[in-house]
Structures
1.
Amino acid sequence: MSDVILEARDVHKVYGGVRALNGLSLSIRQGEIHCVVGPNGAGKSTFFKTLIGVERPTTGQIIYKGEDVTRLPAFRRARRGLSVKFQNISLFAELTGLQNLFVPLRRNHPKSEIPARAAAVLARVGLAGTEDLPVRYLSHGQQQWLSIGLSIAADPDLLLLDEPAAGLSVEETARTADLIRHLNASGMTVIVIEHDMGFIRSLRARTSVLHYGRLFAQGEFDEIAANEEVRRIYLGAA
Ligand SMILES: Nc1ncnc2c1ncn2[C@@H]1O[C@H](COP(=O)(O)OP(=O)(O)O)[C@@H](O)[C@H]1O
Ligand SMILES: [Mg+2]
């Protein structure tokens, strides 16, 4: 059996005349944390959208768990264990964290189990003790973690995070990195899409660098950080 959970094969995405993705090939291994970085306009968000199924590649394939999902709608990928947390959080501000979690849990679990499951998810993302607080009283970081909680409520195999540390304080950023490592240690494969090198430095994970819609470099974080060519595209294009 292959140890690859997700693979992009020669993916192109053209918007009008703009080549957002230009022959991107990239594999994500089962069980890893994988960071995808690149300067603005490199194609990160477009890649993310083709992975989750909200955009279709112009040509090329997305293979998930050995199956060609290129044309599979997003909700069907979700049912196969692929979950996503978008950058913009959408929580019900007047409801508590627990109540927010009821929404995704209701899809898969009997009513009687939901409160206990919601409490467990809340604890898993480090929010035990905030059960009864309306979400608008949570800090920005806590709202981000709750939003990760919503994405993991259905126990996904693969979690995609879009800039999970955007707008967070230094301490919240460190806690977010801990949370990601913790989820990964429980068996979840995690892909982190990120512009900022600072955050992924703390994850020290295998990293792919996108540039002009292609894979520009790939390796362990330290190799990537030491790569002169990578430094050059960041300085030139950021
Ligand atoms: N919906 C769209 N329509 C036209 N051009 C787009 C669209 N989305 C992205 N692009 C272009 O594709 C390129 C890659 O964009 P994007 O994937 O957002 O890069 P990144 O997330 O790395 O900053 C950019 O040149 C961007 O302007
Ligand atoms: Mg982007």
Note: DSSP finds nine helices and ten strands in the chain.
2.
Amino acid sequence: MSEYLNDVNGLVIRTIDLQDNDRLLVLFTERYGKVTVYARGSRILKSKHMASSQQFCFSNFSLYKKGDRYWIKEAEPIESFYPLRENLQKMALASYICEVISDVVMEEQADVELLRLTLNSLYAIAKGTIPFVKIKGAFEIRAASILGFMPNVACCNRCAKSSTAYFLDVMNGTILCERCHEEDEALHSKGPLNEYEATHARIICVLPEEVRFAVEYAVTADLKHLLSFPLSAENEHFFAIAGEQYLLNHLERGFKTLDFYKEVNR
Ligand SMILES: [Zn+2]
């Protein structure tokens, strides 16, 4: 990357305070993917970078390179997502989303769809009118899909028939209807069917039809309307489990901020 990066729109996904009031920022940028930058004196209240260098702030940056580091020359906030900082539950969910993004986004690898998903999710959390269970689950399913783990949940993977409930095989990203699932369970009761199954856990999540639809919708919907799917209170729990199991198992890791989010909600 060049000595000067101008007109860089980026979301602050992580901040680390350094000596002398300097701060290290990890940005998820539109054009360059993940970029680590240094902000001089950004923790001093009168610093002109103060607002733009806070976590969750989406800003327009001008950067310059000194040595092997990028520093902030100018920064203009575009969207501060201020309400994320005034409520612990909102902050915890936004932090989880940013930790996931920080883990999956690479340097010099732009992903506009993933950035839009992240910004839209933060916007919905900040606004606070849509249940968090929908925002979190839709983010998890869609993020996994963008990262190459798109599930196929249109119909039963074996008989293609419709059913009132389905069973999602997380690692295969496919679903079975109740009848095919029962047959499958009978087969598996005798032991693993192949070498892969002998060394990997089968992770199965129950998807009532409404939740199957919600998952399919989260995979395919235009990001602008990503949260416009129905989800009744009795099915929230199934959607929450499916989203979380799907993302975490495909990324093969857990997140400290997710544990914190759960603690806050307890
Ligand atoms: Zn079937």
Note: The CA atoms of residues 82 and 108 lie 28 Å apart.
3.
Amino acid sequence: MKLYHLSSGPLRVNTYFLVNEDGRAVVIDGGENYKKVKQVESEYGFKICAVLLTHAHFDHAGNAKKLQDDGAKVYVSELDAKKLLNDDNLGKDFGRKFEYLIADYTFTDGQELEVCGIKIKALITPGHTDGSACFIVDNMLFTGDTLFLESVGRTDFKTGNREELIKSVKRLFDLDGDYVVYPGHQEFTTLSHERKNNGFVDYD
Ligand SMILES: [Zn+2]
């Protein structure tokens, strides 16, 4: 399995491509920019087979409908699936066009998914949105807008909740061992670095 990364859009959202040996790719948070994602796909010669969303905000899910139209299956938590069909995706608030879509699959907390031949564990980590999720693949932890390098996601948007976010970040810190952390924005980090240097969970 290979991992590719793209940072795109005005909010510099991180898109991750997990590419299987057979050339099928799982996209984690497609972002808003459809063309750039398709460019990466053709440049490396893989085929996008699924899109997993850490949450439904427009900057992460804005191109999901177009990728779905190309044949990719879209996965999201049950609570954030609703936001793909209403304005809780914040597209309207930020003056962005959002193409509504019906997710193909929803997942629940702790569910072990097999997506395009890749084993992925989903954790529901509410706080940034009520249905925000993180994904574990081998030693990689994809955290969306839950956990950033020495920071955490905002909780002042619709369905955000500060207490829930603290709980969710603590839950990530309580995972056994270390992970490379791939967040929804900004630099990569590791869980061990965040356990030491991320002061957020001391705030409660
Ligand atoms: Zn967000």
Note: The domain at 2-203 is CATH 3.60.15.10 (Metallo-beta-lactamase; Chain A).
